[in-house]
């Protein structure tokens, strides 16, 4: 295990005492107080911004505003930086590990080896844990960059570990919704229903399991029966509610246009 020394120094979980899954009491903190911030974290300006060099997911329009916001941002920033360092150490250790029957020449890409079943291999399982805790850290920040980064990690974790021991299927739909990507959220729910459960070779990203632009107007009765988690059902309900609101707004707009037309013609 000498090759993993660097990762252990960086604070990775002890490989001889790994839990089957993250602490059941661990909750995902969603900071959604004022919607996603796309500009300066302090003043919300959207032009001439630069990202924080430590966390990489918070932007500022000036060094002055970054300094003013430092006290509010420091805890989340430090946490993200710390968890990212752990993840990078884990990935480096896996890539440096000697080729064997578990990892192959590239554990992250080689089909038929560890790729797709990371949790089954004790030697590379800590990578998933480190990545999971980075996702949790990212979701403490209320910016679009943070949510996009968390989503990217979550989707790749599904590719690396089909069994989804970390429960990313419960987190990803909400991230799509927060980003305003309702259709992608619906497609992901359909994908999980069709391909994501059990020992299915059609993992997320598999070319034979591409789910794109499914009809979100279809009935939900049979759909709900196949979704095992409340978070997925809530995401589905929110999509339907948004559609009803959009339809109501469209109908109201059409009625208003028709009324205006009649007034102009009278």
UniProtKB/TrEMBL annotation:
Pfam families: zf-MYND (PF01753). Signal peptide: none annotated. One of its GO terms (molecular function) is zinc ion binding. The keyword Transmembrane does not apply. Residues 1-23 are annotated as: Disordered. It comes from the Eukaryota. PROSITE patterns: ZF_MYND_1 (PS01360), ZF_MYND_2 (PS50865). Keywords: Metal-binding, Zinc, Zinc-finger. InterPro entries: Znf_MYND. Residues 40-77 form the MYND-type domain. This is MYND-type zinc finger protein samB. It comes from Phaeosphaeria nodorum (strain SN15 / ATCC MYA-4574 / FGSC 10173) (Glume blotch fungus). The lineage of its organism: Eukaryota, Fungi, Dikarya, Ascomycota, Pezizomycotina.
């Amino acid at each position: 295990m000498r090759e993993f020394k660097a990762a252990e120094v960086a604070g990775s979980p002890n490989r001889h005492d790994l839990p089957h899954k993250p602490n059941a009491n661990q909750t995902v903190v969603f900071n959604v107080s004022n919607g996603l911030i796309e500009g300066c974290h302090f003043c919300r300006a959207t032009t001439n911004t630069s990202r924080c060099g430590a966390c990489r997911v918070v932007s500022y329009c000036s060094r002055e505003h970054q300094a003013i916001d430092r006290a509010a941002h420091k805890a989340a920033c430090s946490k993200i930086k710390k968890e990212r360092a752990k993840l990078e150490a884990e990935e480096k250790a896996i890539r440096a590990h000697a080729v064997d029957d578990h990892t192959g020449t590239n554990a992250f890409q080689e089909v038929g080896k560890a790729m797709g079943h990371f949790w089954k291999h004790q030697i590379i399982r800590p990578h998933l844990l480190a990545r999971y805790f980075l996702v949790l850290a990212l979701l403490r920040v209320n910016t679009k960059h943070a949510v996009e980064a968390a989503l990217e990690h979550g989707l790749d974790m599904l590719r690396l570990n089909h069994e989804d021991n970390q429960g990313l299927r419960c987190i990803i739909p909400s991230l799509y919704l927060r980003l305003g990507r309702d259709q992608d959220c619906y497609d992901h729910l359909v994908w999980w229903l069709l391909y994501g459960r059990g020992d299915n070779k059609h993992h997320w990203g598999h070319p034979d399991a591409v789910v794109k632009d499914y009809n979100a107007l279809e009935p939900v009765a049979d759909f709900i029966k196949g979704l095992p988690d409340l978070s997925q059902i809530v995401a589905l309900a929110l999509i339907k509610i948004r559609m009803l609101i959009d339809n109501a707004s469209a109908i109201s707009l059409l009625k208003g246009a028709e009324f205006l037309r009649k007034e102009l013609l009278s």
